[in-house]
Amino acid sequence: MRSSDDPFRGIIFAVSATILFASSDTISKYLSGGLPIIEFIWIRYALNTLFALCLPRPTPRPVRLSRHPVLQTLRGLCAVGSSVLFVMGVRQMTMAQATTISFLSPLLVTVLSIPLLHEVVGIRRWAAVATGMLGMIVVVRPGLDGFQPAALFGVASASCWALSLILTRKLATDDPPRTTVLWSAVTGLLLLTLALPFSAVWPDWRQFGLSVGMGVLATGGQWLVILAHRIAAASVLAPMFYAQLIWSTLGGYLVFNNLPDEWTGAGATIIIASGLYTAHRERMRARASQIAPPVAKSRVAV
Length: 302
Known about the structure:
The chain is mostly helical. It is 73% helix and 0% strand.
């Protein structure tokens, strides 16, 4: 339950978070040209862990304990995998392309919710998923001269993030959000620490400063997302996160002097439209679940 209801301020927080995330992604693309990906993402996860440890504790229950440690660990692995794969993709793509492909995650959640959450997906949500996949094909353009194999990293990143969102849903009823945030941060930090000796180089002060700045921006974005969802409904906030494409495109132009081509623009329009429709159907499904008899809640098809 939200502590208050202030949708306007929640929207401001959500849009501000997209600016911070786009800035962090732009820095990560820049750093990937001269610093190992594992290294600067490790710095980001170190800051994320400090952030998670500083989150206020609403109950006296120790935050470190989880009723589902295996699922929490798996979620952390998916989250860090999504981060690494995203940078591997954006290193060779434009910011707009990488961000557009990442918008596949909500659609993939719909697909994965069937085997993992035993949800029933109606024909309209399936149509939205199919439309979104068509948009992805337009952006990636397999078999054409514009195809970039790096786009496959983006698709893999979106898939990992979608799986982490599914696991978040499964964990939400038993573990508080602070526990999930901390487990994900620590899991990612430990995994990256194990991999760090195999690729680490000594960064110069500029690279180190940018890595810290990237971590601060990403952590700040996460905090704003948490604040936004505390004061506004998810259905209100969902469309706002697509604003990240604007800031990512702007960052790509200002820093790398590249702009999306007409194919990326068309694909982005299709994916965003299907994502917005999916968010709308999710809201309708939630409302239907609230008024349906308890035995029928898990069988609501939209």
